[in-house]
Amino acid sequence: MEYHISTDVCVIGAGHAGCEAALACSRLGLQTVIFTMNVDSIAMMPCNPHIGGSSKGHLVREIDALGGEMGKNIDKTFIQSKMLNVSKGPAVHSLRTQADKAEYSKTMRQILEQQDHLTIRQAEVMRILTSDPAKEGGEPKVIGVQIHTGTIYDCDAVIICTG
Q: How far is CA 39 from CA 60, 138, 163, in A?
């Protein structure tokens, strides 16, 4: 017997992109579920724990301008900040901040947990479910996801942020 849960959006992955996608959807009032393999690794930075720099810095500013949390979170949890390319012109100056990895992850998890319309699920998504193309005029439509336990989350949209 399958167990069904209804939601508006399912986000697969809780790295930087998954967190921002889930927050954006839930802030629009959509019931959102974010799936992660381990809640202790939400927004984890496994390699070089920094935000900013020449390319990523522009993306973080764009996310910030759209109401995202990445920039705000690094402001709360950084341990070092450095302006790059200072020997060049101001057009290429770029701020890079080094994060306290554990604190950054913990703080982002708290932000997700406190967000209305957002649920965190520690689970592996096994399948993305689609409708029968014959019933949809030849085009399949996303209708949900199935997790490892067999539970199905019925939804209108799936956002894949698996890195």
A: 23, 38, 16
